[in-house]
Amino acid sequence: MSSPYASFNTPARYSSVAIVLHWVLGLSLLGLLVVGTYMAGLPFSPARLKLYNWHKWAGITILTLSVLRLLWRLTHKPPALPAAITNAMPAWQHWAHHGTHMALYALFFIVPLIGWAYSSAAGFPIVVFGVLPLPDLLAVDKDLAVLIKPFHRFAAWALAGLIVLHVAAALKHQLIDRDGLVGRMWFGKS
Question: Could you tell me the pTM of the whole model?
Answer without folding.
Answer: 0.87
